[in-house]
Structures are given as structure tokens and as C-alpha cells.
Design a protein that fits this description.
- The longest helix is centred in the first third of the chain and has 26 residues.
- Strands 9-8-10-11-7-12-13-14-15 form a nine-stranded mixed β-sheet, sandwiched between helices. The protein has a six-stranded antiparallel β-sheet with strand order 3-2-1-6-5-4, covered by helices on one side.
- A hairpin with a 5-residue loop joins β4 and β5.
- α15 packs antiparallel against α16.
- The radius of gyration is 26 Å and the shape is globular.
- The protein folds into three domains: about 40 residues, no CATH class; about 90 residues, Beta-Lactamase; about 290 residues, 3-Layer(aba) Sandwich (Rossmann fold), CATH 3.40.50.300.
- The protein has about 475 residues and is of the alpha/beta class.
- About 40% of the residues lie in helices and about 20% in strands.
- The chain has 16 helices and 15 strands.
- The structure holds adenosine-5'-triphosphate and magnesium ion.
- Magnesium ion binds next to α9.
Length: about 475
């Protein structure tokens, strides 16, 4: 400020710092008396507003809004990371070490460097808070943390013992809503034809021979989102069990049992692994098993299940190509023997690409079926493939092994099955046209199984309504 000597400015700062400390202590004293406030973890705007209102009432407006915001951030949320957590546009929040700015991955803008810098102590404080909430221990002996926030966001953190440039924090924010099949088509992730094909093979005709399917792709390529979107095609009469490390899948189905692995609470504590959950789920008489991500021993259990008659299993796996997925499945630690591989019907490969406008798009780049083995190497048959020249996902071979098998098992002619896919394609197109939300999509698909004409009629009415708007 003009006219103030350095000393005066300093003492003014000290004074306001003192005031803030006094405010925070006052809020804390009162907040501690109210468990509903002191036990909250503020992770959304609504929660922030709610807690702020409650705190204001508690302190009877004797404390400034700034102090209340600061209190919420420091004590009930994640300090300087809080504003990023409340921002719905962000997918990921990254702290990369002392003195470095925080990076965020924005849904539209991609990677963004923010001006916010965290001190090492602040970062450690945040990491400890997340560890406490997740029931984990993190210290120089155990400097790695896999935790999560109450809203389902996943957190990985490391301490300076293993990241010499200082602690790191990576938060994958939980998306309050997962993209639907209609949205994925609008985003160019897949096409109506491909969606119609997947609809038929994931359902299996009238429940006969639903395909065992793997969604493959790199980190954050959108595998889980695609898997979730495809789940609307599972008939609602089925009993579904999903198995994940962190609950991410959200199915519309009523008869759905989500299972989640349990981490040990401390070094000597017990954990429940994905493999144990999968083995357990096989004793639950499921019609459909969905595994969030296969990466270890559970792969063998899954393939054993597929080889003993479990159909329509769906899973994701981290791999950059079909060939890589198969080779990962066959090597340590998954160890799926050769003889079991052909039980896998379909692989859907998804990638992150930069489009002509420089924007990030997630796209299904190839759909393959496992066809056979030549000279000890499994061969795949490409059914759909993205062509960068035409910028579309081209149909290469529709009637491969899966359609032939469906024909053989149901007694339907190949061309009848193709016609059915074509019919479903028009329905998918109409759903996209009408921009149906998740509930609508689920209803149309499920009605279609019971009464196709009724589904078409309902959709027609909805589409006309959407057009007249
Ligand atoms: N088709 C898509 N178009 C645009 N954004 C998408 C698409 N699919 C997913 N996303 C966004 O990308 C992020 C990562 O998606 P998702 O968790 O599905 O990826 P993943 O491949 O399963 O990641 P991981 O490797 O961590 O398991 C999410 O924020 C999600 O909203
Ligand atoms: Mg995933």
C-alpha cells in the first residue's frame, strides 16, 4: 500500500494473520461440538455451501467469510487442493513435488499448469489426512499410499523417501455421472453400427451365448467408462456381480451386487483380493460377472470361469493392443494357459487420440475376436477398425466367429442376425437423435427385449418430442 513503510506493512500483515488464527481457533472450538460438522469431508460445492451455512450460524456471524472458507479448506477438506476438488470440469489433480505448481487435467483443455504451489508440509498433511480416512498407514517405512476419498475419488501418494523431489499426490476425481452410450457416440468414441453390434453380442440372442468381452486400452483411455456404458445392454432379468478395487461402475440394474476389494488396515491386517472376491462370486450363482480391471491372479480365475460355462463376462485390461493383451494374459502374474484363451470372444481396444482440432478424443480404434492359433501365436480377426483417413470406425468383417457361433446355436440364419443388428442400429440412432438420458436408454433397451414394437413406438414418440423442442 502506498505510504506504508515496510515495517508498518509487516505489522499489518501480522495483525491479519493473528486475526485469522484467532478466527480459526474460535470456529474450531464450536465446530468440535457438532459432530455432523467436524466429521464431514467436504468434496463438493453443495457440501461446501451446506457446511459454510452451518458454521456461519454457529459463530453467529462474528467471523469473516474468508476465515470460514479457510477453515473448511484446511480442516474439513484438502487444503489448497480443495478448489480443484470442487471443480467438476477436472478429471485429475496432480502435485509433483516441492516447489512445483499443481497440474490439473481439464476435461476440455487437457493438462493445465496452475499457479498454485504447495509447501512440502502442506502436502504431507494432506497425504496423512487421506491415509487416515482410507484407514491406511503412510510413513517413511511405508511411503506409498493408495487411498480414496469419501466421494469415491482415487488417490495415489508418495513420500519423499521414494520421490526425492518431494511428496507427490495424484487424484483421479470420481465422476458424479458416467458417460452413456448415447454420449459416447456423440463424442465419437464409437459409432451407432458398432454400438448395435456390441448390443447384440453382449446380450447374446435371447440370452444365448453372450460374448466374453475385454475392453483394452492404456491408462485413462476410458475403459471403465465404456464398460459402464455397455452395461445397459445386459438384460435386467440377469443376476449381476461386479468386482472392483474401487467402486466405479454404476449399473441401472436392480439385481446387482457390487463387490469391492478390501485393503489391509495395517501391515499385519488381512486383505480381500480381487481373486478371492471372484472365487466367492462364482458361488453366488451369477448370470453375469464384471471385473473392473484384471491385472493379477484373478485373470486365471476369470478364464477358468469362462471355460466352465460362465458366459458374457466383461472386464477391462490395461494393454495397448489385442496382441499385447493376450500376451499379458498368458504371462506372469496372470498365467492364463493357452488352452483357456479361446473362451475369450471379443476385445474392444480404446485409445486417447488428438483430433484435427487438437482436441483430445477417446476412441474405440479396433474390435477384434480371437480367431485361432497359428505357429503358437493367437490370431485375431478385426471386425471394426478406426480409419484415420475417413475418420470413422469402419466395419471390416461382421460375420466372423461370434456371429457364426450365434447362428449355429440359435438356428438363425446369418443374414437374419445381420438384419437384427441393422434394426438395433436404427434404434441406437434414434436414441442419439433424441439425446436420451441414461434412464431412457435403459428403458428402451430393456423394453426391446420384451416387446420390440413397443420399444420402437416409445422411442418414436420420444424422438418426435425431442425434435419439436
Ligand atoms: N469416451 C470418452 N470421451 C471423453 N471422456 C471420457 C471418455 N471416456 C472416459 N472419459 C473420461 O476420462 C477419464 C478416465 O476414464 P476411465 O476411468 O473410464 O478410464 P480408464 O481407462 O478406465 O482409466 P484407468 O486406466 O485409470 O482405469 C474420466 O474422467 C472420464 O470421465
Ligand atoms: Mg478403469
Amino acid at each position: 500500500m502506498e505510504g506504508l513503510s515496510a515495517g508498518e506493512a509487516g505489522s499489518k500483515e501480522d495483525l491479519s494473520a493473528l486475526q485469522i488464527r484467532y478466527d480459526l481457533e474460535k470456529i474450531d472450538r464450536l465446530a468440535k461440538l457438532d459432530k455432523s460438522i467436524s466429521n464431514t469431508f467436504v468434496l463438493s460445492r453443495e457440501e461446501h455451501e451446506k457446511v459454510k451455512k452451518a458454521l456461519k450460524a454457529l459463530v453467529k456471524n462474528t467471523v469473516s467469510d474468508e476465515s470460514i472458507d479457510l477453515y473448511i479448506n484446511e480442516r474439513l477438506a484438502l487444503g489448497k487442493l480443495t478448489p480443484f476438488l470442487l471443480n467438476e470440469e477436472l478429471e485429475e489433480i496432480m502435485y509433483i513435488g516441492r516447489g512445483a505448481p499443481i497440474y490439473v487435467f481439464d476435461r476440455k483443455k487437457g493438462m493445465v499448469k496452475t499457479p498454485v504451489v504447495l509447501e512440502e508440509e502442506e502436502a504431507v498433511e494432506i497425504i496423512k489426512r487421506i491415509a487416515r480416512y482410507s484407514g491406511r498407514v503412510v510413513n517413511s517405512e511405508y511411503p506409498l499410499l493408495d487411498g480414496r476419498l469419501p466421494d469415491g475419488s482415487r488417490v495415489n501418494a508418495t513420500l519423499a523417501d521414494v520421490t526425492p523431489r518431494g511428496p507427490t499426490i495424484t487424484i483421479r476425481k470420481f465422476q458424479t455421472r458416467s458417460l452413456t452410450i448415447v454420449e459416447l457416440i456423440k463424442l465419437g468414441t464409437l459409432t451407432s453400427s458398432l454400438a448395435a453390434f456390441l448390443w447384440l453380442v453382449i446380450e447374446g440372442i435371447g440370452g444365448i451365448k453372450p460374448a466374453n468381452t475385454l475392453i483394452i486400452g492404456g491408462t485413462a483411455s476410458g475403459k471403465t467408462t465404456t464398460l459402464n456404458a455397455l452395461s445397459v445392454f445386459i438384460p435386467r432379468r440377469e443376476r449381476i456381480v461386479t468386482i472392483e478395487d474401487t467402486l466405479e461402475l454404476r449399473l441401472m440394474h436392480e439385481h446387482w451386487i457390487p463387490m469391492e476389494t478390501k485393503l489391509p488396515q495395517h501391515e499385519s491386517g488381512s486383505e480381500v483380493t480381487m481373486d478371492e472376491l471372484l472365487k466367492n462370486s462364482l458361488r453366488m450363482r451369477p448370470d453375469r460377472i464384471i471385473v473392473g480391471e484384471v491385472r493379477g491372479k484373478e485373470a486365471l480365475t476369470l478364464f477358468t470361469a469362462m471355460n466352465t460355462g460362465h458366459e458374457g463376462t466383461l472386464a477391462t485390461i490395461h494393454a495397448n493392443s489385442g496382441r499385447e493383451a493376450l500376451s499379458r494374459l498368458q504371462s506372469h502374474p496372470m498365467n492364463v494357459p493357452d488352452i483357456m484363451i479361446p473362451a475369450l470372444d471379443l476385445m474392444v481396444a480404446q485409445n486417447r487420440q488428438i483430433n484435427e482440432e487438437g482436441k483430445l478424443v477417446r476412441r474405440v480404434t479396433e474390435v477384434m475376436e480371437v480367431s485361432g492359433k497359428e505357429a503358437d501365436v493367437f490370431q485375431t480377426n478385426t471386425l471394426f477398425k478406426y480409419d484415420p483417413k475417413t475418420k470413422t470406425i469402419e466395419e471390416k468383417v461382421l460375420n466372423g466367429r461370434i456371429i457364426h457361433e450365434l447362428s449355429r446355436l440359435t438356428g438363425r440364419k446369418i443374414n437374419e442376425i445381420d438384419e437384427e443388428i441393422e434394426r438395433r442400429k436404427t434404434i441406437v440412432e434414434a436414441m442419439v437423435e433424441a439425446e436420451l438420458p441414461l434412464g431412457g436408454i435403459y428403458n428402451i433397451v430393456q423394453t426391446y427385449y420384451e416387446d420390440p414394437d413397443k420399444a420402437v413406438d416409445t422411442l418414436h414418440t420420444l424422438a418426435t418430442k425431442a425434435k419439436s423442442k
